[in-house]
Each structure stands twice: as C-alpha cells, then as structure tokens.
Amino acid sequence: MAERGRTSAVIVLGWVVAIGLPLAVTVGVIVWPERIPKDHTIWGIRERIEHEGAGGVKPGTSGKY
How far apart are CA 27 and CA 16, in angstroms? Predict the structure, then answer.
C-alpha cells in the first residue's frame, strides 16, 4: 500500500508542475515590466532638451533625432 501513496504523490506533483509552471510563466510575462526605450529615460530626455537648446540639431546627423 505504501507504493500506491508514493505513486499518487508523484502524479500530483506532475500535475502541479504541468499546470503550475506554464501558469507561473504566463503571470510573469504579464506582470514583468517592459524596458524603457533609451530616448524615454531621464538621460535621453535631458540630452534631447540640451540639443533643442543648441538649435535642435544633433551633431553628426542630418538634423533628425
């Protein structure tokens, strides 16, 4: 009889892993924050403001950001 209890525990563990792992990954993907684009960071905004104050042309470019 002890063998049957161990088998049931393994089956339950298998179901927990089979359902719990994909569920945990799905929740993690939904909740995990996205990376902030470089031009939306404090430093990117500061650089853009400084370039706007300097005539709005970024050195070494055709004037586009």
Answer: 16
Q: Angle at the Cα of 18 (from 33 to 10), degrees rounded to 5? A: 135
> pLDDT for 13-28, tens place per residue?
999 999 999 999 999 9
**58 close to 65: Cβ distance less than 8 angstroms:** yes
DSSP of 1-65 = -HHHHHHHHHHHHHHHHHHHHHHHHHHHHHHSPPPPPGGGSHHHHHHHHHHHHTTS--TTSSS--
What tokens were used for 43? Answer: 């430093």
